[in-house]
Amino acid sequence: MELKLYNTLGRELQVFSPVKNGEAGFYGCGPTVYNYAHIGNLRAYVTHDVLCRTLRRAGYKVTHVMNITDVGHLSGDGDGGDDKMVKSAEERGKSVLEVAAFFTKAFFNDTQRLNIIRPDVVCKATEHISEMIELIKKIEANGFTYEAGGNLYFDISKFPSYGDLASLRLDSLKTGARTELDVNKRNGADFVLWFTKSKFENQALTWDSPWGRGYPGWHIECSAMSIKYLGERFDVHAGGIDHIQIHHTNEIAQSEAATGKSPWVKYWIHNEFLVLDKGKMSKSTGGFITLQNLMDAGYEALDYRYFLLGGHYRSQLQFSYESLDGARNSRRSLAKELAAISGKAASLPQEGEEARGKALEYLASFDKALEDDINTPRALSALRMLVKDSSVDPRDALAAVFSMDAVLGLGLRGVCERALKENANTATPVERAEIDALIASRAEAKKNKDFKKADAIRDGLKARGIILEDTPQGAVWKKA
Ligand code: AMP
Ligand code: ZN
């Protein structure tokens, strides 16, 4: 596969070529665990999941790292507003760490229901404070910081390529004011690396540091943890488009200022928003929909995954219950088609069994769609066309479907297994025992080279509507 990805850094499609041959280091900004994830947030994590699965299909050994933000994230990404974790803890009458533990568990419950593969490394900000302090020390030693009013700031005027990711002009950022006036800042877009008590007297969690007792700015955690687990240069960094302008721009400045290596990350991938009635869905302004809300309304989590796959990650996706109904109906008809193919195949291909023949043509167009900046709508339609083509050998079709599903993550092997079981379950226990006995005596007859008898048993069963298929594991049967 020659994978092409749209790189926000440079704003063009680029052929994926990793830092280390055959490997892919992937960092996706994880949740701030002060509340449940809403279905917009989950779009970001399904996007990361599909991207990692695609890299694996393309043959790379992927290391997926996700952070859990449990400290330092203010309601304004540019250092303004309340501390999200502290505010939520106060409202709920719990400690910050209790709130973090509760919502982290809820988050992974959601991702599991969506068939999102758990990242190889899940790292909490509060468990990496010393790595953050070490990184800030390097940034300071390299001359990119200043202290003012008790905080340590990053001075963007010392970093000439500041704002390249977002195509921002450094001149305007030096003078332009951000949402909240901070008299300590020398340039409008400077940002805090380390807060001391000067910002919030009631900060719940604080740590000793060379700059005083305090806590880290939000952006530094992603630089420190990604470098720790993926090295000073790695391949892919992902997040929602809201992170381009401030969070990711600041992450690049910090990381490159600390290591002196550029580019820190080769490919920046950003997903567009899931929107409700033309507005952004937001965790902090309330009025958001959770996965549990969808399930309470009678949908399965994978209906939502299917719905997301029907949109390209770089296009805005409008959520409505009508479109979710559409996704559910398509998923149900896919399940029916797969049940029919499974019945014809009589048994399922083994894990990793390769598709052959005409099924390969569909698999090729599936891969082509993924190569084209992870075009999941086109990939899904390759799957739909494959299952509708009755000229494809059923076992080959299923082998190709399972290869596709390694990327789509729709649990399609389970769908087929259930279909086969239901098929077998329509026979009464007595009938099943009788069929099994006939299969055993046919095997015995074949062993004794009494093919006449073996064929007679097979034909007798066929006349009753029972079809036998010989597999390496022995004969299996299904109802015609
Ligand atoms: P947060 O937990 O607020 O840090 O956000 C987690 C992830 O969800 C980030 O990558 C955001 O960019 C992303 N995100 C937030 N809102 C939406 C939305 N409505 N649609 C898609 N992604 C979103
Ligand atoms: Zn981040």
Features:
single chain, 480 residues, alpha/beta, Rossmann fold, Four Helix Bundle (Hemerythrin (Met), subunit A), 3 domains, five-stranded parallel beta sheet, four-stranded antiparallel beta sheet, 16 helices, 16 strands, 46% helix, binds adenosine monophosphate, binds zinc ion
- Any idea what the radius of gyration is? 27 Å
**List of distinct ligands in this structure:** adenosine monophosphate, zinc ion
**What name does CATH use for the topology of the largest domain?**
Rossmann fold
Looking at the structure, what is the overall shape? elongated
The side-by-side strand order for the widest beta sheet comes to 5-4-3-10-11
Work out the helicity level: 40-55%
Largest sheet: 5 strands, parallel
The structural class is: alpha/beta
Question: Kindly state the mean pLDDT as a whole number?
Answer: 91
CATH uppermost class of the largest domain: Alpha Beta
Description:
By secondary structure, the chain is α/β, with parallel strands linked by helices. It folds into three domains: 268 residues, 3-Layer(aba) Sandwich (Rossmann fold), CATH 3.40.50; 98 residues, Four Helix Bundle (Hemerythrin (Met), subunit A) (Up-down Bundle), CATH 1.20.120; 54 residues, no CATH class. Helices cover 46% and strands 16% of the residues. The protein has 16 helices and 16 strands. The strands form five sheets. A five-stranded parallel beta sheet has the order 5-4-3-10-11, with helices on both faces. The chain has a four-stranded antiparallel beta sheet with strand order 6-7-8-9. The chain has a three-stranded mixed beta sheet with strand order 13-12-14. Helix 10 runs antiparallel to helix 13, helix 10 crosses helix 14 and helix 11 runs antiparallel to helix 12. The protein is elongated, with a radius of gyration of 27 Å.
